[in-house]
Specification:
The protein has 452 residues and is of the alpha/beta class. It has helices spanning 37-44, 53-70, 87-95, 105-113, 130-139, 148-161, 199-207, 229-247, 274-291, 305-308, 342-346, and strands at residues 23-24, 30-32, 35-36, 48-52, 75-80, 99-102, 121-123, 142-145, 165-170, 212-218, 254-256, 298-301, 312-324, 328-333, 352-354, 364-369, 378-385, 393-397, 417-422, 425-430. It is 27% helix and 23% strand. The strands form 3 sheets. Strands 4, 13, 14, 15, 16, 17, 18, 19 and 20 form a 9-stranded mixed β-sheet that branches. An 8-stranded parallel barrel has the order 5-6-7-8-9-10-11-12, surrounded by 6 helices. A 3-stranded antiparallel β-sheet has the order 1-2-3. The N and C termini lie far apart (65 Å).
């Protein structure tokens, strides 16, 4: 039996509230990937990130198959690893035939050591260090050029390494979409990418760089988007840029439209399916290229949240309760903004249930607070729950994206463990940090050491 939703959309997991393998056992306790969440909490502790392998692979497959079905030219989906970067996720998306985009040396090394072929990796970033650029150049990774600083540094790094660097040029397309102010990146007032009026001069400049080979163009309009029209509008803007680049002699073969497809965090969310999103993008690119008599480029996209968010959940243990008569009841859990900073940062909403009584009748409204010394450390406001007590387990769904990757050690809280679940088996993919490990990088000068 599948709780919470009458049926699952197995072809587009981003439209589900919970992972595809979510079920109830014979005692109405919550299972994912054939594993009892209460048992996982007892074995690995809480807070605990749980990732469902079946949902992850279904999401990868959805993008791969939709691109093949709706775009007549070559295509490649690149996992936006900023959503959740780990060795196991790099290995999984590589095994599914996807590529990956990284935005730091850490994400790049994780991808490479996870088995992602360097020719399927792109390096993003608006302030890349020499270390990051050198690492990309050494491994033959495509560098997404974001600004003049990238070009200036590469002009020194690439010749010194004796390499011709594959480049993708990022620009701001000037397209607005209805999303949170902090996650809109396609409008003109953005820290990312060249302005459109700079394109021609940058392209002319690159034409004289013997160390550079411009292979692609990139634009991205935002994140957690439910609209399709902005992505359709993007196709025309990018096709114009493609025509300009080719007219100046650049062998541009890749058109990267970014990502941004939203997911269902709460029941009222209604994102498009992966198939609808890909179909809309593919048809718009195809039409724009035909109108301009352009040979079809390879179509690239960069899904992050829509690949991993729904596959993940977090299990917490409930601790204290504070009741303010006539106002609010607070339930505190053993995690909070250190393992999920999205509510305090973006006012994000989530769906949550009790792990061992997920279908019990809700009789009270509570606010779930984290344990950190911060008044704003609130994970869920006005959550309807059955009666609960200290020691009960709370499950928060759709935490696979931007939770672990944006986590911190605020208040010196150790980072949470993470497990992969599949076919009734759980595998540890990130061990829990120990409190003493938080001191590994501290240095106490000799003059502060206590006198014996």
């Amino acid at each position: 039996m599948r709780p919470f939703e009458s049926e699952a959309d197995s072809l587009s997991p981003n439209r589900n509230l919970t992972p595809l393998t979510t079920a109830l056992d014979g005692h109405d306790r919550l299972q994912v990937g054939g594993c009892d969440l209460g048992e996982l909490a007892r074995r690995y502790g809480t807070p605990l990130y749980v990732l469902d392998e079946a949902t992850l692979r279904a999401s990868c497959r959805a993008y791969r198959e939709a691109l093949a079905a709706h775009y007549p030219g070559p295509s490649l989906a690149l996992y936006a690893s900023k959503a959740n970067s780990s060795l196991v996720l790099s290995a999984l998306v590589a095994s599914e035939g996807l590529g990956l985009d990284a935005v730091s040396a850490g994400e790049l090394l994780t991808a490479l050591q996870g088995g992602m072929p360097p020719e399927r990796i792109v390096l993003h970033g608006n302030n890349k260090s020499d270390e990051e650029l050198s690492l990309a150049v050494a491994h033959g990774v495509t560098v997404v050029v974001d600004n003049d600083h990238d070009l200036e540094r590469l002009a020194e790094i690439a010749p010194a390494a004796g390499r011709v660097v594959p480049l993708m040029l990022r620009f701001t397309p000037g397209i607005e979409c209805h999303t949170h102010e902090y996650i809109r990146t396609g409008h003109l007032d953005s820290k990312f990418g060249f302005d459109p009026d700079q394109l021609e001069s940058v392209l002319q400049r690159l034409a004289g760089c013997s160390w550079a080979r411009l292979t692609g163009l990139h634009a991205h309009i935002g994140s957690q988007i439910f609209e399709l029209q902005p992505h359709r509008d993007l196709a025309g803007v990018m096709a114009d840029a493609l025509a300009l680049a080719r007219s100046l002699g650049h062998p541009v073969s890749d058109l990267n439209v970014g990502g941004g497809l939203g997911i269902r965090y709460v029941a009222s969310d209604d994102p498009p399916t992966i198939q609808e999103w890909v179909k809309g993008v593919a048809e718009a690119v195809l039409r724009a290229c035909r109108e301009r008599d352009l040979e079809l480029p390879r179509l690239l996209c960069e899904p992050g949240r829509s690949l991993v968010a729904t596959a993940g959940l977090t299990v917490y243990t409930i601790g204290s309760r504070k009741q303010i008569p006539g106002l609010r009841t607070y339930l505190s859990v053993d995690g909070g903004m250190s393992d999920n900073p999205r509510p305090i940062t973006y006012q994000s909403s989530y769906t949550a249930v009790l792990a061992e009584r997920p279908t019990a009748v809700a009789t009270e409204t509570v606010t779930v607070a984290g344990k950190h010394c911060e008044s704003g450390d609130v994970l869920l406001k006005d959550l309807a729950l059955p009666p609960s007590s200290s020691g009960d387990l709370l499950v928060v769904f759709a935490t696979g994206a931007y939770n672990a990757s944006m986590a911190s050690n605020y208040n010196r809280i150790p980072s949470a463990a993470a497990v992969f679940v599949h076919g009734g088996q759980a595998e540890l993919v990130q061990r829990r940090e120990r409190p003493d490990e938080l001191l590994l990088h501290d240095v106490l000068p000799e003059r502060f050491r206590p006198v014996a």
